[in-house]
Amino acid sequence: MTWADAFDIFIRIAILMAVIIAFSRVFGLRSFSKLSGFDFAVTVALGSVLANGITALDKSLWVPILAIAALFMWQMVVAPIRTRWTWFENTLDNRPLVVVENGEILEANLHQADMTRADLWAKLRDANVGGLAQVQAAVVETTGVFTVLHGHDRISPELLEDVRR
After folding, report:
1. From its phi and psi, is residue 28 left (phi > 0), alpha (psi between -120 and 50) or beta?
2. DSSP secondary structure letters along the chain
3. Distance (Å) of CA 131 to CA 102, 117, 128, 135
4. Confidence tier at 153 by pLDDT (50, 70, 90)
5. Is pLDDT at 29 greater than 80 in this prediction?
6. pLDDT at 79
7. What does the domain layout of the chain look like in residue ranges?
8. Which ranges does the record mark as transmembrane (predicted)?
9. Does residue 32 register a pLDDT over 80?
C-alpha cells in the first residue's frame, strides 16, 4: 500500500461517513434502530457496504453511495408496510421468545432459541441478576437481543402479549 492509497482510504471514509450521516438525518431515527430483523439486516448490510466502499480502491465511490441509498430507501419502504400488514411483519421478523418465566427455565424454548444454559447464565449475569428466582421473564427479542425483566414490581401484561411462550 502506498501513501496515495492511504490518503484515498481516508477520503473514502470521510465521504462515505458523510453520506451515511446525511441519509440517517433525512430518513430519521429508525435508520439504525435494529427494532426488527429487517432493520438489523439493513444495519449489517450498511456496515458491509461501508467496509467494501472504503477498501475497494479500484471501484468507483458511486457504487457504495448507490448501495447505501438503496438500503435506506428499502428501509423507508418496508417500515410502513410492516406496521400496516401484520402478515408482512410476521413474514419478515421472528417473534420474541420467553426462555425464563417466573424463575423457571422453559427448556423447550431455550432449545428453540439455540441457547445453552451457559448462554442463559451469562445473559442473566450481564443483566445483574443474582438468582433465577429474581427473573420474571427473560426474552430473546426479534433481533436476537436478550432482555431480562426482574425486580419486585409486577410486569404489565402488555409487555409480553406478542411474545411466544
Report:
1. left
2. --HHHHHHHHHHHHHHHHHHHHHHHHH-GGGG---SHHHHHHHHHHHHHHHHHHH-TTS-THHHHHHHHHHHHHHHHHHHHHHH-HHHHHHHSPPPEEEEETTEE-HHHHHHTT--HHHHHHHHHHTT---GGGEEEEEE-TTS-EEEEESSSPPPGGGGTTSB-
3. 12, 14, 9, 7
4. confident
5. no
6. 87
7. 3-91, 97-160
8. 6-23, 35-55, 61-81
9. no
Nearest residue to 22 via CA among 14, 34, 12 = 14
Q: What is the pLDDT of residue 144?
A: 86
> Which grid coordinates belong to 19?
453520506
| pLDDT tens-place string over residues 116-131 | 999 999 999 999 999 9
Cα distance between residue 57 and residue 85, in whole Å: 42
**Fold held by 97-160:** CRO Repressor (3.30.240)
Largest CA distance in the chain: 62
Average pLDDT on 64-69 reads: 98
